Amino acid sequence: MSSLLVRGGQRLTGRVEPSANKNAVLPVLCATLLTDAPVTLRNVPEITDVERIVGFFGELGSKVEWDRAAKLLTIDHSTVPAGAKATLPQAMRASIMMIPGLLVRLGEARLEHEVKGCTLGAREIDPHVEVFKAFGADVETGGKEIVFRRRQAGEAVRMWLEYASVTTTENFILCALATNGTSQVVNAACEPHVQELCDFLELMGARIVGKGTSMVSVEGGAELGSADYTFSEDYHEIATFLALAAVTGGDISVRNRHPEHFPLLDRTFAKFGAEVEHADGWSRLAAPEQLVVRENFTSHLITKVEAAPWPYIPADLLPIFIALGVKAKGQTMFWNKVYEGGLTWHTELSLFGAHTLLCDPHRLITFGGDALAPATVTSPYIIRVAIALLMVASSIKGESTILDADPIRRAHPGFVRNFVALGADVQWTD
To answer: Where in the chain is the domain with CATH 3.65.10.10?
Structure first.
């Protein structure tokens, strides 16, 4: 694992062109398995999970050309031979979204039991298994593998999810496209990256009704064709750079062609005294002299930031707001309603001198505004926790080290380069 050496205290200023959203790119790559027509993808980030999927496609026999400098990826699965076999990548959670395409193409898919992703606590695959079974797949477990086999061409189904899971919703949509009739999922996830997957599928010829809502209908049976698709900017990365402006007392503008996704994020920044402006395709945050937690009108209640499935604040962004809570004068409760392991890293903040209190596995209180000192901290394998620790270190004069900071590379290939361009003094070390 690599570390980041941070010499903090600089006021960050400038403009940033963010990368595409990993959580949009990966399901789109998985969805290309549903067609033999050539697909062109633009603004593809050079991240480790894309490398893994491209490598898997190569093992499968697909023709893939990736111009990393141009962020251009072309894929042709028509070259996959009958009876091809390949082991799904274990080191990323997105592997499970390749199963619908492999069932259609090869009739079978194999997945290791311990499919991995960020260390956010228990992340079951039962909802996915229910989807695959509903669409006519047999599921067997044996040894270290789960084997999925396409028993028959499934019929259209209507399914009400227990939880608005992003990847379960995406797997439902991918399975439904290969089934005759109209299927419907209730309590569907509606995050912007789910909407991007639907945009891509519609470009290929899919008929989807209700994207961006909790009830999505998919008309199956249509042959999917070629597509030329450009990924949008990652709203996670946009929000992160805006938060960097706030925490360092800076002034940063970030390219953002979809400000319609930001009203609640803007209100959350305002809880710390930071105002976001959107104009002409850019979002800007010019930090106040001091971040101060806004008091509730109901004075006996602490100011809260609640993270849950969209359209709540995304759980993935909660760490960057915790970093603001550490810097802002006042008390804030952060409530992660998604992952029970998403807040245990708060102990690393105490090494900077921050005062935090973990109420239970889902709720954390920050007592912000105290003077902080440089420190050496260790990031868990969670992308935006590594970034949150980097944010706090950047706001403190002196030299800090973020150990095991590699998770940043999983989602943001040019993050440190952009960070330096804004005036930060930070570098990778082994």
So the answer is: 3-19+233-429, 22-32+89-230
Question: How many whole angstroms from its chain centre is CA 251?
Answer: 25
Q: What is the number of alpha carbons within 13 Å of residue 260 lying toward its C-beta?
A: 5
Q: Cα–Cα distance between 375 and 353 in angstroms, integer? A: 9
Residue 152 CA to residue 102 CA, distance in Å, equals 14
Write b or e for each residue in 29-45: b if 16 or more Cβ atoms lie within 10 A of its Cβ, otherwise e: bbbbbbbbbbbebebbb
- The pair of three-digit structure tokens given for residue 86, joined into one six-digit string: 């390949």
What angle (nearest 5°) sits at the alpha carbon of residue 312, between those of residues 307 and 317?
A: 50
Report pLDDT digits (tens) over 41-97: 999 999 888 999 999 999 999 999 999 999 999 999 999 998 887 778 776 778 899
- Region 22-32+89-230: CATH code: 3.65.10.10
In which element (H, E) is residue 129 found? Answer: helix 126-134
Q: What is the pLDDT of residues 187-230, one digit of tens each?
A: 999 999 999 999 999 999 999 999 999 999 999 998 999 999 99
Q: Which of 377, 384, 376 is nearest to 118 (CA)?
A: 384
Query: What backbone torsions phi and psi does residue 260 show, to the nearest 5 degrees?
Result: -65, -15
Instruction: Encode pLDDT of 115-162 as tens digits.
Output: 544 444 445 789 999 999 999 999 998 777 888 998 877 789 999 999
pLDDT tens profile 233-290: 999 999 999 999 999 999 999 999 999 999 999 999 999 999 999 999 999 999 999 9
Angle made by CA atoms 151, 156, 158, in degrees to the nearest 5:
120
- Tokens at residue 323, please? 């970093």
Q: Which CATH number fits domain 3-19+233-429: 3.65.10.10, 1.10.10.10, 3.40.190.170, 1.10.3720.10?
A: 3.65.10.10
Query: pTM of the full predicted structure?
Result: 0.91
Q: How many residues does the chain have?
A: 430
Of the candidates 366, 364, 368, 412, the residue with the CA atom closest to the CA atom of residue 386: 412
DSSP string, 350-400: HTTT-EEEEEETTEEEEEE-------EEE--S-HHHHHHHHHHHHTSSEEE
Q: Helix, strand, coil shares of the chain as percentages rounded to 5?
A: 35, 30, 40
Task: Write out the E strands in 231-372.
Answer: 251-255, 276-279, 282-286, 303-307, 330-336, 355-360, 363-368
